[in-house]
Design brief:
single chain, alpha+beta, five-stranded mixed beta sheet, two-stranded antiparallel sheet
Length: 164
């Protein structure tokens, strides 16, 4: 997933170091927009693990056959965070305008016995921390759910503060 980063800002260069590029913003699957700005805050809608317009994986997270492993789910949470970054970029243009990732909320479609939601969301938190450096340190909620839209294993939304 690497790409030419000439002319890219610091955030996009940091993502490129991890082998990522900011993808095109994912098209909404219902009646909402990917992100809205109010004052100096940008709120994203929940982002799912779409890559090139298709879901990477579906199902519930847990230990055992037929379930999405916690490790795979953490990787997918990173994909969701990358899609959230794309949603922010669609509103603010330059990701270097982000001065703080304020809050991350993650939802994990969990097998009934699974209690490792925080570890799954670390995939998103680590990607945001690498991309935004100190400004990527954030408050977070990790919530287990019975099911998520499109049967995705994880969904992530973020709130960021931006400078004018």
């Amino acid at each position: 997933m690497t790409s030419d980063t000439s002319g890219a800002g610091v955030v996009e260069q940091r993502l490129a170091e991890l082998g990522h590029r900011v993808p095109p913003v994912a098209a909404p699957v219902a009646a909402y927009v990917p992100a809205v700005q109010h004052g100096d805050l940008v709120f994203t809608s929940g982002q799912v693990p779409f890559v090139d317009g298709r879901l990477e994986q579906t199902g519930k997270v847990g230990e055992g056959e037929g379930l999405v492993s916690p490790e795979d789910a953490a990787r997918l949470a990173g994909v969701c965070a990358l899609n959230a970054i794309a949603a922010v970029k669609s509103v603010v243009g330059d990701l270097d305008r982000v001065v703080r990732v304020v809050k991350v909320v993650g939802y994990v479609a969990s097998d009934p016995g699974f209690t490792g939601q925080p570890g799954v969301l670390d995939g998103a938190s680590q990607l945001l921390g690498h991309a935004f450096g100190d400004a990527g340190v954030h408050a977070r909620s990790a919530v287990g759910m019975a099911v998520l839209p499109l049967d995705v294993p994880v969904e992530v939304e973020i709130v960021v503060a931006v400078r004018e």
